[in-house]
Amino acid sequence: MTGTTERSSGVKRLLDTPFSIGSTVVGAGLIVAGLIAFWTGYQESTFPVVGTELTILTGLVGMMFAIFFGISLLIVAAFMEPGFDA
Question: Beta partners for 32?
Answer without folding.
Answer: none
